[in-house]
Amino acid sequence: MAAARTFTELKFWQKARVWSKDIFERTENGRFALDRRLVEQINDSSDSAMANVAEGFGRGTQGEFVLFLGYSLGSVNETQSHLCVAYDRRYITKDDFATLFRLEPKSER
């Protein structure tokens, strides 16, 4: 397989994009939408997971790309922590929590 020419060709960036969108859609509804602080935190961290992949790819060196993949993983972990809070506050269902925590976007179910 040929090397990716743009970050949008990377499967894990594509997956992170759908995951971030799925999370955003859940933050727009019900009581979850009223918790503005958590909504901003969870959306920012899930967006950051995808953005760090793109930024690292654009840096042009393997070392920096790996560094930014580490930042991305940190953002994934932060988002998973926010998902725990959302579940504990009953903003999302058990099934939604399990699916999102596993990073299983809608398009991959």
Question: What does this 3D model show about the protein?
Answer:
There is one protein chain. With 109 residues, this protein is mainly alpha-helical. The chain has a domain at 35-103: de novo design (two linked rop proteins), CATH 1.20.1440. It has 5 helices and no strands. It has helices at 11-27, 30-34, 36-58, 62-88, 94-101. α4 (62-88) runs antiparallel to α5. The radius of gyration is 15 Å and the shape is elongated. The mean pLDDT is 93.
What's the arrangement of secondary structure elements?
Blueprint: H1 11-27, H2 30-34, H3 36-58, H4 62-88, H5 94-101
User: Biggest β-sheet: count, sense, barrel?
Assistant: none
Give the class-level CATH name of the domain at 35-103.
Mainly Alpha
Determine the N-to-C terminus distance. 25 Å
How many extended strands? 0
Enumerate the spans where pLDDT stays under 50 for 5 or more consecutive residues.
none
> Level of helix content?
over 70%
Question: Strand content of the residues, in percent?
Answer: under 5%
CATH fold-level label of the domain at 35-103: de novo design (two linked rop proteins)
Count, helices: 5
- Secondary-structure element string: HHHHH
The shape, in one word, is elongated
Q: What's the rounded overall pLDDT mean?
A: 93
The CATH homologous superfamily name of the domain at 35-103 equals: 23S rRNA-intervening sequence
Radius of gyration: 15 Å
CATH second-level architecture of the domain at 35-103? Up-down Bundle
